[in-house]
Design brief:
Strand order of the largest sheet: 15-21-20-17-18
CATH topology of the largest domain: Immunoglobulin-like
Number of helices: 1
CATH class of the largest domain: Mainly Beta
Shape: rod-shaped
Mean pLDDT: 90
Order of helices and strands: HEEEEEEEEEEEEEEEEEEEEE
Structural class: mainly beta
Largest sheet: 5 strands, mixed
Helix content: under 10%
Amino acid sequence: MRKKIYISVFSFLLWFGTATAQPEAYFSADTLTGCGSLTVQFTDTSSGAGIISWDWDFNNDGTVDSNVENPSWTYAGPGSYSVRLVIGDGTDTDVLIKNDYIVVYQLPNAEFTSDDSIYYHSSFGVMFSDASSYVPGYSYTTTWNFGDGDSLVTDSSFVYHVFNHEGTFNVHLTIEDNHGCFDSISHTVTLTDLLKVPNVFTPNGDGINDEFIVVTNGETIFEFVVYSRWGMILFKSIGKQIIWDGRTSAGVELNTGTYFYTIRSVSNEEKYVKNSSLQLVRTKE
């Protein structure tokens, strides 16, 4: 009689334990955030015996996207996605929704333009303009690599850079936001070493051609000397830029006439030597 009682109690406990082990939905993901698009591997970690069905809704839009126990899913665009899982054991079901569980950030779009017009009278100088598309509300780090060994981190939309020699350079721009999303772009620029000297200027105060400006490469250091027709030194300067306003070194305005000059690099490189004359015209028409 006692043996029958033990068997009955054991059977009841076994039935009770099985009957009360209802499914409880739970899951995890191998990554929760990404940039542009994102492939996520989901893992069912639900509890309960005899689970036989999994209904995954990866963006909680009411459509079942997968019935696989441990599926993967690719989010094709930026957004904040809630994930819904319904599990079942054939009798009972349970549901779990994780709101805003997966976040895909919008990628920035890197782009820039370059203007090799003669800025600051330097043929080695280039003005770069950041033309990238940024996501409002994000913060960014902008890094320029100029291809000549120099780089710059800045938040300015305009960057002026002077290269140290002529040639073709691969300029690289990278932008990265506060979520770690980034984009980059490269363009080439080709620069020529110039020593371009005008032959006339009109320092009459009308704002047009008031200075004698020599276009150089912006890197070489030049000595510039102006002489009278009798060989007297009237003006002298040394620097990377050659700009003269028609005055002597003492600040005295020179009259209209023909003057002579010499230009040479302080390193005496032959290609940077020029001797000629110029016309100074001060009379207003």
